[in-house]
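Example record

One chain of 185 residues, shown exactly as stored in the release files.
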Amino acid sequence: MTLDQFKLTIHMVSSLDGFIAKKDNSISWFETSHSYDNGVDGEDPVEFLKTIDCYVMGYHTYELALLLSKDYGWAYGDKPTVVLTTRPLQSDRKNLTFYSGNLNTLIIDRLKPNFNNVWVVGGSKLTKEFLTQKLVDEIRVSILPIILGEGLAFFDQIGQEHLLILKDAKAYKNGMVELCYDVKK
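Predicted structure tokens for this chain:
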């Protein structure tokens, strides 16, 4: 792997008002039956997911993913997944590792040498840490057609301004809008 190809992407699914989960952590609102005739069909999920080399998530997202996997299966497949936690956690999954330490060290020592396309998939505290340390190359947010009114905010009061450059915007037939931004460094 060449280091100049490495890209760290933050991806979140959000309500229009910027929440990534309800107060009770539920995400039942992810399912939408909305129809937007002018929207495009989504990419083939299987083919798209092949472009992601590794996932990084916080322990809250990990615990939610474990809970959801009972009904829907493990959403991250066999891809290497790093869970950031200071708590002692265990897993039977061979592709899952736990990490506690400096984010810069994680990227330089473990991620960059092994992967090109790394996705941070949750949660808001983790997103804040990656952004404030200027470790993010791209932000992708999938906005669903709903206003939740309250819940867990996407960006957890970052406290810094970050200039973004719009790279792509798509409206899908299900009413979801995906925005993709490069993070100006």
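Notes: Residues 3-183 form a domain with the Dihydrofolate Reductase, subunit A fold (CATH 3.40.430.10).
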